[in-house]
Specification:
The complex is a heterodimer of chains A (about 400) and B (about 350). Chain A is an alpha+beta fold and about 400 residues long. Chain A has helices at about 5-25, 35-50, 70-85, 90-105, 105-120, 235-250, 255-270, 280-310, 320-340, 355-370, 375-385; strands spanning about 125, 145, 150-160, 170-175, 185-190, 195-200, 215-225, 230, 270, 275. The longest helix of chain A is centred in the C-terminal third of the chain and has 29 residues, at about 280-310. In chain B, strands 1-4-5-8 form a 4-stranded mixed sheet, with helices on one face. A 4-stranded antiparallel sheet of chain B has the order 2-3-7-6, with no helix packed on it. Chain B has a two-stranded antiparallel ribbon with strand order 9-10. In chain B, strand 9 and strand 10 (about 250) form a beta hairpin. In chain B, about 55% of the residues are buried. Classes of the chains: A alpha+beta (about 400), B alpha+beta (about 350). Bound molecules: flavin-adenine dinucleotide (FAD).
Chain lengths: ~400, ~350
């Protein structure tokens, strides 16, 4: 263990702090959806310029090109969270596609997609789930049939977050119908404007509020060059699993920022003239949550160290998604409780706190408990892959 | 010794369930959410014809004068069907208060509730929780101030106002100086609002009625618990039905032990809570000394297991549970919002301890 913040780190912290002091008014307290697209992209680009975003992505792919360093990451996260400002972008392109391309993409794919994705110029959605294939993702049916140098894609995806506002989709399709279910899948990059591709939005339980949109994506003879495959044909399952791993690590990693926001709320909110923070029951619940946030924060440091040393963290690496998503839901629950009667308010009604953030966050966190592999699937993975427990027996063939 | 619902209560439950399934379908409820207030008078009238609205109204005023346990059966069913109606405000809170009080207008008001002609909204929040400088005062014989998260007041004819824990007043909804603004919550099936009174002349003022105010809140809490548990029951039923039907990995998901356990934990929470609710409701008429404590626990406990059941039942559905189309969220939100009305769990438990004289940590 070496967590010395040498002088160099103190200087880095000062630098991040003054960057935020000078720039945070541009974005503070505003959800990305409240900025124009240009404002948001400029903000991302400014962060890349200073190395606070895309920090370890090589320069030739549009990143800042720094050596990975645990303490830098920790300091950036701490300072951004303290300032109440989102670092980088939580969307699926940067968090899932980019790490996948870095690991499996061709030189051309990396050159073409990583920079624009990190700068927000190209927005991606993830086309994995289908109506009949959610937890059992490998059973997916959307097909890509060879046609000259191209594939023709037919089928349907569902629960595709942000598809209605994305430029591109990374999609799993079955290219080898004869192969066993896990080895017939390919990972393809596709322009959302391609002919034959249609997006139908689905309303969610959170109504029109919240960052997430939910969609169905239909494919009818959608033509895509075979060169759009990432990795090799038929290896899509393996590649998707690296993406999912990134998704599961990124989901809800902003817990400390949410906790600070919760603390500010509890200081302001009063019931019968007494602040919520002074109520011992609420304070105790807050402290329990803080312990969980701190545990997950330091857990992330430990996992990052493992990944820098290319060590396998074992079962410790499998529990993050399960814990973080429930933690997000529980923080929203406390926020809603301390607001009492007013915690129920929604739809931009009078007296609503934080523009309805907490109710929306509660819905969203519940969605995250399900999305990207449900809590039950996470527990199966932890026990089977992490603890070596036997898999469930397959049901007898009918 | 006989701990359970009577044959009449079971019949009441069945009649109401089949009526609501036919007449107040979820499609109808979906269409009501676009309206300024979900408490549609047609539904209220239809409930009156079934004898539900006047369930606690004395017979002499046209009601059926049944017990709170009967009313809890109705509330359970309304929660189960996420029916929007002013049942809590009119048939419980206002009725329990008014039938205890005397004033020449009361027979007419209660008769109107029983016949479905009259709707009462109730401003009760400030009796136990004040925020945003809310509170109503009486000055020179007229009412001033604001009340928050009043129940069922938008479409009401009269509003029963909790002035302080000793004092109630009734105002006409359309009297001078009465402003009612809907406060929208996540739950589109319940009417909550802010009421501002400016120099409003009351129809009646009742002073030194502390015990009545307490009885009213107790009945309200038990009723709200019943609604929440009814909504929980409906969510469990939907989750179980889905688990029997949805297939992944070539088998119905209900054959996975993980899913079985989610379902069994939900029902293991619900059934004892139902028993507690029955006891609390029964105590209201039969053992009133126990009702203050029982009503706090019944509601606090329902709210706590409600939050868990709402989340787990949604999770059993996977992604589809998160959509608007699946409708599951109507129950999720009914349960979630009820948690904040008439006292949240922390408040209710604190009160429960206080009622038993348990020392407060200082
Ligand atoms: C907010 C949100 C965002 C999403 N975004 C995307 C996206 O951008 N792109 C995308 O492709 N998908 C997305 N999804 C879909 C998500 O990945 C799936 O919903 C999820 O994998 C579950 O699949 P399902 O919905 O088909 O549920 P099902 O797989 O049908 O699951 C239903 C229930 O059965 C349980 N179950 C299933 N199999 C087992 C088992 N073997 N053992 C124990 N329990 C089991 C589940 O845990 C769940 O409780 C999103 C979902 C949500 C909620």
């Amino acid at each position: 263990m070496d967590l010395e913040y040498g002088q160099e780190y103190e200087a880095f912290r000062q630098e991040v702090r003054s960057f935020l002091d000078n720039n945070k008014l541009k974005v503070k307290g505003r959800a990305p959806s409240e900025l124009t697209r240009q404002q948001y992209n400029d903000w991302l680009e400014l962060q890349i310029e200073h190395g606070y975003w895309a920090r370890t992505i090589p320069k030739q792919y549009g990143g800042y090109g720094a050596e990975p360093d645990l303490m830098h990451t920790v300091i950036m996260d701490e300072e951004f969270n303290r300032a109440g400002v989102m670092r980088g972008s939580p969307s699926q392109g940067p968090s899932m596609l980019v790490p996948t391309l870095l690991e499996h993409g061709t030189e051309e794919q990396k050159q073409r997609w990583i920079g624009p994705t990190m700068r927000g110029e190209v927005r991606w959605c993830q086309g994995y789930s289908e109506p009949g294939s959610g937890s059992d993702l490998a059973s997916l049916q959307t097909s890509a049939r060879e046609d000259g140098d191209d594939f023709l894609i037919n089928g349907q995806k569902i629960w595709t977050s942000t598809a209605d506002r994305s430029d591109m989709i990374f999609v799993l399709v079955r290219t080898e119908p004869e192969a066993p279910k896990h080895s017939g899948i390919s990972y393809i990059l596709l322009d959302m404007k391609t002919e034959g591709l249609e997006v139908q939005p689905l309303r969610t339980m959170s109504g029109d509020i919240g960052e997430n949109s939910f969609n169905q994506v239909f494919f009818k003879d959608v033509r895509v060059p075979q060169s759009s495959v990432v990795g090799h044909r038929g290896e899509g399952w393996k590649i998707a699993n690296t993406t999912l791993k990134h998704e599961r690590n990124s989901l809800s990693s902003n817990a400390e920022g949410t906790l600070f926001r919760l603390m500010r709320l509890m200081e302001k909110e009063t019931i019968n003239g007494v602040s919520a923070m002074a109520n011992p029951v609420y304070r105790d619940r807050l402290m329990k949550l803080q312990a969980r946030v701190l545990a997950m924060k330091h857990h992330a440091m430990r996992l990052l160290t493992c990944s820098l040393k290319q060590e396998n963290p074992g079962v410790a690496g499998l529990v993050t998604k399960l814990q973080n998503c429930q933690l997000g839901f529980d923080m929203a629950s406390l926020a809603i409780d301390v607001m009492g009667e007013l915690g129920a308010l929604y739809d931009h009604t009078k007296y609503e706190r934080d523009k309805g953030f907490w109710q929306a966050h509660s819905f969203f966190s519940l969605g995250l408990i399900i999305g990207g592999g449900t809590a039950q699937i996470q527990k199966n993975i932890i026990s089977e892959r992490g603890l070596g427990l036997p898999r469930e027996p397959k049901p007898a063939k009918a | 010794m006989d701990f359970g619902l009577s044959e009449d209560q079971i019949m009441l439950d069945e009649t109401l369930r089949s009526f609501l399934a036919d007449q107040v379908s979820i499609e109808r409820i979906r269409s009501l959410r676009e309206e300024s207030c979900p408490n549609h008078r047609d539904i209220w009238k239809e409930l009156a014809e079934l004898g539900a609205t006047g369930i606690l109204v004395p017979e002499e005023h046209g009601g059926s004068e049944l017990s709170l346990l009967d009313a809890a059966v109705v509330a359970w069913t309304l929660g189960h069907a996420v029916t929007p109606s002013p049942f809590l405000g009119s048939s419980i809170l206002a009725t329990v208060a008014l039938r205890d009080l005397s004033h020449k207008a009361i027979p007419g008001w209660l008769g109107g509730i029983a016949s479905g002609e009259t709707v009462f909204g109730v401003a009760a929040t400030e009796l136990f929780s004040k925020r945003e400088e809310a509170g109503i005062r009486i000055e020179g014989g007229t009412l001033h101030g604001k009340a928050m998260m009043a129940l069922d007041a938008c479409n009401a004819d009269f509003i029963l106002v909790g002035v302080d824990p000793q004092t109630l007043a009734v105002v006409r909804r359309d009297a001078d100086g009465v402003e009612v603004e809907r406060l929208r919550t996540t739950d589109a099936t319940r009417c909550t609002s802010e009421i501002i009174l400016k120099d409003t002349a009351p129809e009646a003022v009742f002073e030194n009625v502390g015990p009545t105010v307490q009885r009213m809140l107790e009945a309200g809490r038990i009723t709200l618990a019943a609604e929440t548990l009814g909504a929980c029951e409906a969510m469990i039923e939907q989750a179980v039905a889905y688990a029997k039907e949805r297939k992944q990995f070539n088998r119905v998901i209900g054959s996975f032990q993980a899913v079985k356990h989610m379902c069994s934990e939900m029902i293991a929470d619900l059934e004892p809570a139902r028993s507690l609710l029955w006891y609390a409701a029964h105590s209201f008429n039969a053992i009133p000394d126990e009702t203050p404590l029982m009503s706090c626990h019944a509601l606090a406990h329902a709210s706590e297991i409600g939050r868990e059941i709402a989340s787990v039942a949604t999770q059993v559905h996977g992604g589809i549970g998160w959509t608007d189309d699946q409708n599951l969220h109507f129950w999720f939100k009914r349960i979630g919002v009820a948690r904040h009305l008439l006292g949240g769990p922390e408040f209710l438990r604190d009160r429960a301890a206080e009622l038993q004289g348990l020392a407060k940590a200082s």
